[in-house]
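>> Question from a student workshop board

For tomorrow's exercise we were told to take the sequence and the ligand below, predict the bound structure, and bring the output to class. My setup keeps failing. Could a helper post the expected result so I can at least see what it should look like? The ligand is PRP.
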Amino acid sequence: MNEVKLALDVNEKPPVVKWIILALQHVFAMFGATILVPILVNSAVGSTVLTIPVALVTSGIGTLIYILCTKGRSPVYLGSSFAFITPIAVGAIKAGVGGAMTGIMIVGIIYVIVAIIISIVGKEWLSKLLPPVVIGPMIMIIGLGLAPTAISEMGIGSDITAIDYKSVLVAIFTFVITAVVMLKGKGFLKVIPFLIGIISGYVLALILGLVEFSPVLEASFFSIPDFILPFVSYIPTLDAAMTIAPIALVTIAEHIGDHTALSTIIGKNLLKDPGLNRTLLGDGIATFAAGLLGGPANTTYGENTSVVGMTKIASVWVIGLAAIIAILLGFLGKFTALVSTIPNAVLGGVSLILYGFIAVNGLKVLIENRVDFSKSRNVIIASSMLVLGLGGAVINISTVTVSGMSLAAIVGVLLNLLLPKEKEEMIEEMKDNNEEKNNTEEVKNEDEIREDVENIKEEVKQKEELVVLNHPLVEHKLSILRDKNTGTKEFRELVSELGMFLCYEAMKDAVLEDVEIETPLQKVSARRLNEDKYAFLPILRAGTGMLDGLIKVIPNAKIGHIGMYRDEETLEPVRYFFKVPADIKSREVLILDPMLATGGSGCDAIWQLKKEGVTKIKFLCLIAAPEGIEKMQKEHPDVKIYCAAIDEKLNESGYILPGLGDAGDRIFGTK
Ligand code: PRP
Ligand code: URA
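>> Workshop helper replied:
Here is what the output should look like for this input. Compare the format with yours to find the bug.
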């Protein structure tokens, strides 16, 4: 796992004023989405199923429960889940508010059961049950299933006889502001586009006289939220269970995805420590508690994870205080009354993006996992799920109703288990399972331990094998290259030439194949390189400067490109392009980049290649900084580094000293 420099570590507590400000930032981040869930469910049902105060309180309580279950090791905020908007609405129409709440509690219980099974047998079975081809369409259904609600809130549905232009104007204005903040917002603003959209739309609605303000005037300053309890407010019934519970399959996968993303952000593998069993347990008990008190199901909030990513403040103390503030807000009668006066048109405006945004995330799951739709199996699974989920399917079995979305989840899981797989897919799956196994601490037998020891020995050997070209001519050429008076033409030629030297060095261990040849004088057996086994991968832009030299040596190697640039402020690599030969897995890959500075770009390029299944990688650079070497050897001890020189250090802007300046700019003459 990447080591990440955090501004505040998971268990660090900030000073009081800073603590409150940081917590409020999290409250802002979660607020828009958390209050939208009750508003949208009620609007879909046409009566009150959920209330904003209870949603705020249960999200706060849920977050505190989660922190306890994960022993304060995972900085996650839990808010109301969008995935359950339609199921809760359909469940409430079918079996009343009590039926919907029972369904939510069952979702919590499912989480807890899954957590217990994971504690006993591990988590590989989950990815078999819920592969991307099932999860992607399911997320799309969740988003697109909500589309009609957005349209009717905007006031432009087919059932509208007379359009209220003021409302439509507010909806469009809200949409535009939300979109602009998403596109142009910087820093924290970028995390709260929906909240900004709602506030802006609300102000316009107020000006146009569309806000009914009397509930705010009538409300008391403090009021106890309308909690509803089983056996007190209703008798639990299983009638809506099959409408709501199957969605847990999808949200569990979402839970794993969110924790994987957060692990990368904070540089700690949360799936190992505190462990997926504990995070799921926390989410499950939180969701059960929410249902118990009359609130919506909880989920880990992407908005809050983004805040952690941006601020690098991973303190659970901050998240915990945000949870307490959310609970207190739920008791502020005037405040929650104000929130309830948000006109439908405003909600329609944000929903226009929000629901599509959820659907687009489903598409992202399919694309990022390269789900292959030339395979009939994948087409059958995704198509049937989409049609069942969006076509309004409802199956009534006795008193139990299974609605479209749940039916789609069940059918998707079953088809995935039953339809035969093609050979390559099974190999891929085995590989994924192995990777996952490496991620969990499992008891190993003697042979496996011996193999591990051998691997470690090999790694140590690799570490010792950082190769620095040690040759007077190389030193000579480097001195010209470093000189700021060297012009673009000569600079390019030298980068290419040194690239060629590095290639010779990197190919020292190449295995040659025996061939029979005939010289002008006689037949002789000789040895040749099978050039089809290699690929070069320059990191754009500067890496392409070395490419020429390598192609001269191995002209038949295939070439891929990875586009990345360093963010000038964070020095983190930003990806913008990735295109590699289709058979890259089977090739030895030589990554080319003149500069190994912090090591961020190089390491990220290697991760991308490893994700493609590449196992043999070498990294060729002209100048390496000690910091970059250390990072690369830590993250990728299996990748051998070849360089022409190791320099002293990095300066405060991340440039190598003495270095040669910005390699890309000098090769392309851009500065
Ligand atoms: C340079 C260089 C490496 C990276 C090294 O590229 O070519 O890719 O910086 O820095 P790091 O190891 O600390 O991440 P840059 O981002 O300037 O892009 P460019 O090649 O397009 O100029
Ligand atoms: N990238 C460069 O091009 N030069 C450096 O010194 C560091 C990163």
